[in-house]
Specification:
rod-shaped
Length: 132
C-alpha cells in the first residue's frame, strides 16, 4: 500500500510544483495611444485676429485668410508657400513679418507687428498651422 501511495504522492507534488512556475503575466495591455498634442497657439483665438487686424485689409479682404495662406504657393517669393505648416523657414508670411526679409519690404506697411505677435504666428506655424 505504501508503494501505491508513492507514485500518487509524486504526481501530486509534480502538479503542485508546475502550477507554481512563473510564465509571466498572461495579460499584456495594448500600447497606449500617445496623448494628443497640446497647442500653445490657436488659429481662431490667437493668429486669425492678428492677421485680420494687420493684414487682411490689403491681402484678401473678401476671402478667408486661412484658405489663402496655408499650403498656398507663394508665387514670386523665395519660399515655396505663403505658410508651410511646421516650417517657419519656408513660410513667406513668417519671413515678411520677422523683419528684414530677403525680398521686398517688411510687413505690415503701417509698422511692424509686436514681438509677441510675431512669436505667436511663428509658434502656430511650427505647431502645424492648423485651423483650430
Amino acid at each position: 500500500m505504501r508503494r501505491a501511495r508513492l507514485p500518487l504522492l509524486l504526481g501530486v507534488a509534480l502538479l503542485a510544483l508546475t502550477g507554481c512556475s512563473d510564465l509571466g503575466d498572461p495579460y499584456v495591455p495594448a500600447p497606449l495611444e500617445p496623448p494628443p498634442p497640446e497647442f500653445t497657439v490657436l488659429w481662431g483665438d490667437d493668429v486669425e485676429p492678428i492677421l485680420q487686424a494687420n493684414c487682411q485689409g490689403c491681402h484678401f479682404p473678401e476671402m478667408s485668410v486661412y484658405a489663402n495662406i496655408v499650403g498656398v504657393e507663394a508665387v514670386g517669393y523665395g519660399g515655396p508657400f505663403r505658410v508651410a505648416a511646421g516650417d517657419t523657414a519656408n513660410s513667406v508670411l513668417f519671413q515678411k513679418i520677422s523683419g528684414n526679409p530677403a525680398y521686398g519690404a517688411q510687413m505690415p506697411f503701417g509698422g511692424a507687428l509686436l514681438p509677441e505677435q510675431v512669436t505667436a504666428i511663428g509658434t502656430w506655424i511650427a505647431e502645424g498651422a492648423l485651423e483650430n
